[in-house]
Amino acid sequence: MGLRWWRNFCAVLAGVLLFFHGFCYSEKAPNYSFLQEARHAPPDLYYDYIIVGGGTAGCALAATLSQNATVLVLERGGSPYGNPKITNLDSFFANILDNSPSSPSQFFISEDGVFNTRARVLGGGTALNAGFYSRASSDYVRSAGWEERLVEESYEWVEKKLVFRPPMLQWQSAVRDGLLEAGVLPYNGFSYDHLYGTKVGGTIFDHQDHRHTAADLLEYANPRNILVLLHATVEKIEFRLQGGSKPVAMGVIFKDKAGARHRAYRKDSKSEIISSAGAIGSPQLLMLSGIGPEAHLKAHGIPIILGQPMVGQGMADNPMNALPIPSPRPVENSLIQVVGITTFGSFIEAASGSDIIRSWLRRPLDQSFNASEKAMKAVMTAAVRGGVILEKIDGPISTGHLNLRSTDPEDTPYVTFNYFKEPEDLRRCVDGMRTIIEVINSKSFSDFRFPDIPVQVLIDLMVNAPVNLRPRHVSAAISLEHFCIDTVMTIWHYHGGCHVGRVVEPDYRVIGVDGLRVVDGSTFNGAPGTNPQATVMMLGRYVGEKILGQR
Question: What's the CA dihedral at 187, 190, 194, 198 to 10 degrees?
Fold first, then answer.
């Protein structure tokens, strides 16, 4: 009896000490002692886990692994903290449209002629996006082969740190009610879950309209086991080749802001290198390191480590189309808070605020609008207030590919998404646009539109706006099919390039090499739910827990 009591007491004591160890040694954002400029790093470093990319997945993964191993995070951008463009909701467009060399947003144009951006900042896309938080569907989780219990726990781990309930003011409430009036039923209230119908989702903006990012998940990290280097651009992964055996990833070469090169190596045989560089960065890094289509790598003078034709294939971006709606009355500044999840494969969302229409269309309306003088005057008068209602299609089915532009890791590769190549994607867009029109024409939304500006004027506005570099069909203003094709934009939910089963195993180890994994949205076969950030952060936590369980 005494021995059993003593064992139970020791187990409880160990649990208490572990709890207080984590409590005492965790640090609060933004005052992380483990954040450091890469130029201060030594020439050579040795860690259990080297994570390339401190983004949406990378921060969650690093925080988890640091509980029982040493972790080095190499982030090519800077810190999100102290940057009001990142922090403040009102600066969303100023942040994402900032093309300066030091911007957290790196602008590029896909080969489809669509403007796009990729993150270069600690926290990744969570430092740029519209903040909406919604989980993947249960069907998506099952098809991915994930353990549902651990998925649930991993989502909750993220939500405790940085997810909030949005305030739901007048504009967003009108959109919600308009969706219900348009038949996007039932109403599911506030929920993180992916449910058919209309719901209010979570947001990473708090009640002061301040953004929280995946970098906040580093509050979970053990600061004694982790180092995060900023402005550390990884040039390639180094491998050891031994006869007929698999190549083994041994380390990485990275350069700091001043151009000095450093090397980071795996500490031992249990150690790993993990690419969490995102849907563009991870396939790019594999190619730069010699893993990819052989002919393409040879054309760039890259020595072949492993011929892998599927790297960079299956790139997909969920096409977005929208209508701007000038309002006769003031509206709140809001990003995505409500979503209509339709049964036909389209998601309807909305945003509103001061001058949002000008920001959305990228240049002053009087340079792009070609409608009646009366309608134009009304729109211009209201240009400082209004909003947009947008639709994004599920999937998508259409996919493309990624090719290197050069061997410079700072150069965004050539990316082709092949928007609407598959007819089913186009059908979903058309049905989504019809739903948006029904919302705009609904009684619930009538207070936020000018009665003398028909929807056709809004369609004309989009067709004539410089939202992309694609040519226009002459019938784009009267054919919703051509409207979708001609005015397509990105909602920054691109994914693919390192698919599970093609480039990585179900445990995210790169097929054909040892010591290397990819953990980010490049492994997704389709976008998870309405907005992917929840699932990308969950994935970082999920895989981190799996890895620790195997140590």
Answer: 30
Return d(Cα 531, Cα 537) in angstroms, integer. 12
pLDDT value, residue 3: 46
Q: Rounded CA gap, 263 and 75, in Å?
A: 14
pLDDT in tens, 231-282: 999 999 999 998 778 999 999 999 999 999 999 999 999 999 999 999 999 9
Model confidence at 539: pLDDT above 80: yes
pLDDT, tens only, 98-123: 888 889 999 999 999 999 999 999 99
Round to whole Å and give the CA distance between 543 and 509.
11
The two three-digit tokens of residue 513, written as one number: 């090499």
C-alpha distances (whole Å) from 216 to each of 83, 121, 132, 160, 213 are: 15, 13, 16, 11, 6
Nearest to 468 by CA among 362, 378, 342, 395: 362
Q: How confident is the model at residue 421 (pLDDT cuts 50, 70, 90)?
A: very high
3-class DSSP string for 524-548: CCCCCCCCCHHHHHHHHHHHHHHHH
Question: CA 64, CA 293: separation in Å to the nearest integer?
Answer: 33
Q: Which residue has the tokens 């954002």?
A: 29
Active site residues: 493
Single-letter amino acid, residue 390: L
What is the share, in percent, of the chain residues with pLDDT greater than 70? 90
For 321-343, give the DSSP string.
Answer: EEEEEE-SS----B-S-EEEE-T
C-alpha to C-alpha distances, 449 to 167, 388, 397, 445, 516, nearest whole angstrom: 22, 11, 34, 7, 54
pTM across the whole model = 0.93
Helix ranges (H only) for 392-532 are: 423-440, 455-464, 480-486
136, 350 Cβ separation under 8 angstroms? no
Q: Under 8 Å CB-to-CB from 480, ≥6 apart: which residues?
A: 429, 430, 433, 434
Amino acid residing at 310: M
Q: Which of 478, 480, 483 is nearest to 467 (CA)?
A: 483
The amino acid present at 538, given as its one-letter code, is M
Rounded CA separation 100/117 (Å) = 12
d(Cα 54, Cα 438) in Å, to the nearest integer?
42
